[in-house]
Amino acid sequence: MPQSASTMTVTCQDEEQTVLWADRLSHLLQPEDIIALNGNLGAGKTRFVKAIAASLGIEETSVSSPTYTIVQSYAGQLLLHHFDLYRIKEEEELYESGCDEFLEGGGVCLIEWANRFPDFLPDDYLEVSFEFTSENSRELTLCSFGSRHERIINSLKAFLS
Ligand SMILES: Nc1ncnc2c1ncn2[C@@H]1O[C@H](COP(=O)(O)OP(=O)(O)OP(=O)(O)O)[C@@H](O)[C@H]1O
Ligand SMILES: [Mg+2]
Questions:
Q1: Domains by residue range for the chain, with CATH
Q2: How far apart are CA 56 and CA 75, in angstroms?
Q3: pTM above the 0.85 mark?
C-alpha cells in the first residue's frame, strides 16, 4: 500500500455533521476521483454517499447500497459511481463484471468496503474511515494516498477551527 500523504480526523457528533462534511467534500470532487469508504456495518458509509449525491443534485432517496449489482451510477453535477464490495467474495468478480472500467470512466467513484480488495484500487485515492464513537456520533479519518487527492484534505483542513 502506498504511504498516505495527508490525513485529518473530524468528529461528527450527530448525523447532520456527517452530512456537513460530505457536503464540503462534494464541492471539491473532480471527475475520476476515487473515494474509498471503510468502516463497520452501519458506520455511515451509505449515509455519506447519500449526502454527497444530494449536494450534487441527485435525489438522495434514489441512492441505496447496490444490492444486485456491484456498482450503481447516478448523474448529477458530476457522474457518481457508487460501489459496495461487501458481498464480493473473489476479486475476480470485480474484473469479470467489468466494474473496474468505472474507475477510469469519467465519474467520481465512491467505494464502500474498499478495504476488502485493496489491490482493486489505483495508487491514488482518498480513504474515509468511519468509526463509531457512540450511537449517533462518528469519527471520520480522511487519508490521501498518492498526490492527486491531497488537494481535498488540504482544502477541508480550512474548515477545522
Ligand atoms: N453521526 C452519524 N453519521 C452517520 N450516520 C449516522 C450517524 N448517527 C447515526 N447514524 C445512522 O447510522 C446509520 C448508518 O447507516 P449506513 O447505511 O450509512 O451504514 P454503512 O456504513 O453504509 O453500513 P453497511 O456496511 O451495512 O453498508 C444510519 O441509519 C444513520 O442514520
Ligand atoms: Mg452501506
A1: 4-159 (3.40.50.300)
A2: 9
A3: yes
- Contact at 8 Å (CB) between 53 and 63? yes
HSE, side-chain direction, 13 A CA sphere, residue 64: 4
pLDDT tens, residue by residue, 104-132:
989 999 999 999 999 999 999 999 999 99
**Atom of ligand 1 lying closest to residue 14 CA:** 1
Pocket of ligand 1 (CB under 6 A): 12, 14-15, 18, 39, 41-47, 65, 86, 112, 136-138
Q: Which ligand minimizes its atom distance to the CA of 17? A: 1
Secondary structure E strands in 2-88: 4-12, 34-39, 71-75, 79-84
Helix (H, G, I), strand (E, B) or coil at 80: strand
| Model pLDDT, residue 10 | 98
